[in-house]
Amino acid sequence: MSDLDVRPVAESEFRDANSLFLRTLHIPPASDDQWERSSARYEPGRVLGAFVDGELAGTAMAQSSSLAVPGGAVLPAGAVTNVGVRADRTRRGALTALKRAQFADARERGEPLTMLHASEAVIYGRFGYGVATRARKVRLDRARAVPHPDVPAGGAVRLVDAATAEKVLPEVYRRIGLTRPGMMSRPDGWWRHRLSALQQNAVVVVHSDDHGVDDGFALYEAKANDYRFDDGMITIQVGDVQAADTTALAGLWRFLLELDMAHRIEAVDRPVNEPLEWWLTDRRQCRVTGVGDDLWLRLVDVPAALGARSFGAADPVVIAVRDPFLPENSGSYRIGPEAVRCADDPQLAVGVDVLASLYLGDVSVSELVAAGRVEVRDPAAVAAADRLFATAEPPWCGTAF
Ligand SMILES: CC(C)(COP(=O)(O)OP(=O)(O)OC[C@H]1O[C@@H](n2cnc3c(N)ncnc32)[C@H](O)[C@@H]1OP(=O)(O)O)[C@@H](O)C(=O)NCCC(=O)NCCS
């Protein structure tokens, strides 16, 4: 019987943890340069190691962040990443032990939420995570994607170098604010890691409004096919577009659609309701090539998380929450206009993973009733619960971590 122990790793062990994680994704250890960039995201005390018989066998870390929830509150939330267990030590409970330790740590830090992007969709439901936002990937043929005359003209755009981007982008992102449920703050270490990529091939465009205030940016890279043996296409791969309003967003998209020597534009992680189709004279030129799960959310402290979001206008509904992994969350909650624990008979019952999917408003209660994921004890409660959890627009994260 081997001995499994989980503890925060020392700073001197960060690189070992990073190498172990990369190997679990079949990536070789980082070079000194890569590690220099990557290490900015490692926060002392938040990098956990699972040790089997004293040897590092698995790791998981979190970055201190925060998440916007419906109603405008922004809650402290750990952004979990770099999760991996050595291939010769899997399926012995190392991840389970790491998750337990991470949840306990989140509670101690006063973080009611924890979030991640999942490498595989089958891993995290058992720990109480649910898909809470989705994002889409779009492809546009630049020559045929002609902006509609009604698209806002947008303001001025300018290309900036890496040093300027390092200063301006975090400021612009802060100025934009976490205006939409699902948006998260970007820790300094996240920015250092992300912007270090600019020394390579990425291009940064900044948009400013009529008063000269920067209010949006886009990052992209160009990928070219061989012009003799392939189709010679140049694809602009857009990785991050952030804008304070639709004028800035339209201005950035106009810039991308008017780039010379660009045949295709591909953008990932875009909001499912971005009005691109409506901005084109031929809406079919915006090809949605995929809609995928984006942010996975875990309500570590269910009463605190429910108490922090606002709910729509409808009669209150009593929902029973089952949380086998953190049983202290299990119980009945009366939802709307506030959410409180109660002793009333539940009208609906959900697992805590399903509650996480409902929490930001990405999916309706009735959709999950149809999917068999919500147990209905009082059918009249479904329509009311739909109205309570509904949000004005779908949530969107927009930050890869
Ligand atoms: C995903 C990973 C971390 C799981 O670690 P682990 O130590 O094997 O997980 P555990 O032993 O604690 O497993 C807990 C349960 O989850 C299941 N599980 C874990 N990973 C799974 C996977 N990839 N697919 C299906 N089931 C999985 C286990 O079978 C186990 O089920 P059980 O409780 O019914 O027995 C590990 O497989 C890994 O490193 N994968 C490659 C890297 C990766 O994908 N990391 C995640 C990045 S988001």
From TrEMBL:
Span of domain N-acetyltransferase: 4-152
SUPFAM superfamilies the record matches: Acyl-CoA N-acyltransferases (Nat), SCP-like
Active site per database record: Y124, F401
Keywords recorded for this protein, A-Z: Acyltransferase, Transferase
Domain of life: Bacteria
InterPro entries for this protein: Acetyltransf_17, Acetyltransferase_Eis, Acyl_CoA_acyltransferase, Eis_dom, GNAT_dom, NAcTrfase_Eis, SCP2_sterol-bd_dom_sf
Binding positions (acetyl-CoA): V83, G84, V85, R91, R92, G93, A94, L95, T96, S119, E120
Residues of the signal peptide: none
Assembly and binders: Homohexamer; trimer of dimers.
NCBIfam families: PRK01346.1-4
UniProt xrefs under HAMAP family: Eis (MF_01812)
Protein family membership: Belongs to the acetyltransferase Eis family.
Record-given protein name: GNAT family N-acetyltransferase
Organism, scientific name: Saccharopolyspora taberi
